[in-house]
Amino acid sequence: MAPAILKYLELPFCVLGIYGCYLTWGILQEGVSTVSYPSIKTGEMGRFKKISIPRKGLIISYFTVAFIQSLASQFGYNSLKYINYPTMILGKSCKLVPVVVMNFILYQKKYPWNKYVTVVLVTVGVSLFTLLQPAKANAAEKTNSVFGIVLLLINLILDGTTNSTQDKIFSKYKITSSQMMLWMNVFSSIIMTGYLMAIHPLGNHELVNAISFVAERPEIIKHIILFGLCGAVGQVFIFYVLGNFGSIVLVTITVTRKMLSIVMSVVWYNHKLAFGQWIAVAIVFAGIILDTVVGIQQKRKKQAEKEEKEKSKKI
Fold it and tell me: Which of 9, 17, 194, 277 is such that its CA lies 20 to 30 A from the CA of 183?
């Protein structure tokens, strides 16, 4: 009886957590950014300045990466029509590889040896774990086509280009994660709205049809709002990680998310995993632990070298 009750309480608990934290966050943010406050020195009322428009070079960079990201999603969605489930899973599991490759090709960025080992271990582990997951009995198996695989490869390359370019923008312009999130969303919205307006004839317009659907079925509005809210909260975390830890860490988190959710389900509901899946989990965690331990050692070494240089300067 208790597990059944916990099952029903699980989602409401998560929803309340998200609402409580981020609705309050939104209200406070609005107050901080729009309400005038008195100065304790002069009594003069004032508020934060409105957002500044980025300079031309940065605007072009924002637009470019937003365009590449929007283009990548179209190739990704269309590839699903021509490839089977295992191929799709392999594609999603291998997203770390194009990030490393495109960082090197476009920006000649090299990583420490532990990053390359981690990329290989996480990619292999996640791929094995998901491929060993039992397929649904009613799932119709599709065959792969060359066209579908090409679309998937283009999607992976564009995703890698997006992440590596975002890394470059952060390092070059020293912007915040909030600035990146804002302008990426602004330009992505403009691009996708233009796409919707241009790709379909007026008589059969996707945007018009969507608006008509919502107008006829207003009950869906609350679900759309919740959908947007969850996406917005998720983006806050995503862009924070991207800005502070880099694309390799972010993509590692995203490609391991589904695997960890399945492992949590196994622990919580006493489901079973195949022996090979446990091996895959061990491979992934081995990669993550290796990267963490070596990363800590490298930071300590750099700190020690820095302190040694400061001591030698004093002498």
Answer: 17
Long-range contacts of 193-202 (CB under 8 A, 24+ apart): 195/70
Domain presence at residue 292: yes
**For residue 6, what are the contacts with CB-CB under 8 A and spacing of at least 6?**
none
- Token match 């309050």: residue? 24
User: Which residue, 235, 214, 268, 289, is CA-closest to 69?
Assistant: 235
Residues paired with 46 in a beta bridge: 37
Host domain of residue 89: 21-28+55-195+232-302
For residue 37, what are the β-bridge partners? 46
43-57 pLDDT per residue, tens: 555 554 555 566 778
Max CA pair span of the chain: 80
Burial code of 168-180, b = ≥16 C-beta within 10 A, e = fewer? Answer: bbbeeeebebebb
pLDDT in tens, 137-186: 555 556 678 888 889 899 999 999 999 999 999 998 889 888 999 999 99
Token match 């960890």: residue?
260
Rounded-to-integer distance, Cα 242 and Cα 235, Å: 10
Q: What is the CA radius of gyration of the chain?
A: 24
Q: How far is CA 174 from CA 66, 69, 182, in A?
A: 18, 21, 15
Domain presence at residue 86: yes
What are the phi and psi torsion angles at 49 (to 5°)? -70, 150
Is residue 245, in this structure, part of any structural domain at all?
Answer: yes
Contact predicate 155/61, CB 8 Å: no
Residue type, 168: K
Report the candidate in 73, 247, 97, 248 with the shortest Cα–Cα distance to residue 177: 247
Rounded-to-integer distance, Cα 315 and Cα 313, Å: 5
Neighbours of 92 (CB within 10 A): 18
| 3-state percent helix, strand, coil for the chain, nearest multiple of 5 | 80, 0, 20
